[in-house]
Amino acid sequence: MSAARPLTTLRILAAAAAFPLLLTACGYGSDAADDDKRAEVAAGAEKLSAGEVRIGYFPNLTHATALVGVQEGLLQKELGGTEIKASTFNAGPSEIEALNAGSIDIGWIGPSPAINGYTKSNGRNLRIIGGSASGGVKLVVDPDKIKTTDDLKGKKIATPQLGNTQDVAFLNWIAEKGWKVDAASGAGDVSVVRTDNKVTPDAYKSGSIDGAWVPEPTASKLVSQGAEVLLDEADLWPDKKFVITNIIVSQKFLKEHPDVVEAVLRGSVNTNEWINANPDKAKASANAALKELSGKELPADVIDPAWKSITFLDDPLASTLDAQADHAVKAGLLEKPDLKGIYDLGPLNKVLRAEGKEEVDDAGLGAE
Length: 368
Hints:
It contains 13 helices and twelve strands. By secondary structure, the protein is an alpha/beta fold. The strands form two sheets. The chain has a seven-stranded mixed sheet, sandwiched between helices. Strands 8-7-9-6-10 form a five-stranded mixed sheet, sandwiched between helices. The longest helix is centred in the last third of the chain and has 20 residues. The relative contact order is 0.20.
């Protein structure tokens, strides 16, 4: 990609001017909420360069690093007397707006809103500083209507939102099949029906959709209602890995409080290590956090298969974010972006080196 400035900006399709593009990796639960949740700080703990750090994430299993890290105190432990203030969101644009407004400093977010936020600000508002999760996206269908991928032609398949991460992936998959779909309206050889994850299970139950390309736990909730997994998106990627959740930071906060950023990253790395070493405890912790945030926990027949399909890792899988941007360009949802500078993995690699772990790569998209 060219490193020329200024960066190109997102182009909204004329037929879909009312729709925000490249939105969230998809939330699950209630609408965006500022929970003003504060972690307990140990008495006498020494503060870092900031008295508090405001973090944002989704009440969603693909954001379990944040859910578990807060729930188990693993993030707060690394911050000492610097207090965590946590807010949850269900949409990427609202989290990006909060970052831009200074309401949060660091956020867990999907690749598409990170790309959108970076390009729309001409590369001035955020950096991706780490990875969090891979996978957790499936195409699930009504087995009575669809038995093979070829059977999707002429059917109604839901994605969470026009231009969101899963919508882009599905449009790209359709194009690779040689089928035609108008990206703005969703009309074509397959009817792409943009449906909020909260109502997708009811839409499936009523028969108004024949399947969905969705993240967890929505995919497993549909399976619990009789749908079957036709395709796991991980199977479409090299090594079966693709970014679903990144960690972003405002450039201002990164410049002013590098010690706090490093502490959050150390907490994230330690949380991912704990999750992978204690999958059952971590799953229970994430479910407890979801119950606290939404008022109800996920049943075993939903959370068990959903949890197994998500990989928690520190690597932001930069090359896959670049590929996802290319998919959006091919779908007509995005002008070719200049993503040079979207990553600053220096702080993360410092943490990884100290922990004796392998450093990660920015695929040539690092800040100079």
